[in-house]
């Protein structure tokens, strides 16, 4: 499998104040993806789940690419042990580069930045602009309220029933690769029901 065909984008948090279970899940995901030979692309941070993800991948000699805005790097928020750290001008470019060429997106629990990244990915998929799997790792049931909110959006007619298949939910990092490989196919034809 080529690098570009095995590149997984991870959205995760930099908070160090959250429960250790979140950091443990991130570390384990890094290990699993590295063992699988996947290239990890993430936000480049060295703290919280971001740092744990990177440390997990590095512990298994995995390839991990960080993409970080210049202002964050200037604040020394970047991880120093990555395979590659790309410094970009702003948050928008960071997000674009993280998603581009990835064969899947995996979201770990996080705050506003992580949620914004995840919801943009779901929106792009709804519009047929991102066609690959999106997997939510639901550690400690963190994503339950968001999953319910999206279900309510379908129930209230803001989204189509078919939009439920845009994302997969797993409870542990060990289930991520299976969720990616078994995700329903998605195509540009999704535009036909994007506004239903």
TrEMBL record:
Stored InterPro entries: LOG (IPR005269), LOG_fam (IPR031100)
This protein's UniProt keywords: Cytokinin biosynthesis, Hydrolase
Entry's EC annotation: 3.2.2.n1
GO BP of this protein: cytokinin biosynthetic process
GO-annotated molecular function: hydrolase activity, hydrolyzing N-glycosyl compounds
Record family assignment: Belongs to the LOG family.
Gene3D superfamilies registered for this protein in UniProt: 3.40.50.450
Lineage: Bacteria, Candidatus Eiseniibacteriota
First-level EC class: hydrolase
Keyword Hydrolase on entry: yes
Domain of life: Bacteria
Record-given protein name: Cytokinin riboside 5'-monophosphate phosphoribohydrolase
GO CC terms of this entry: cytosol
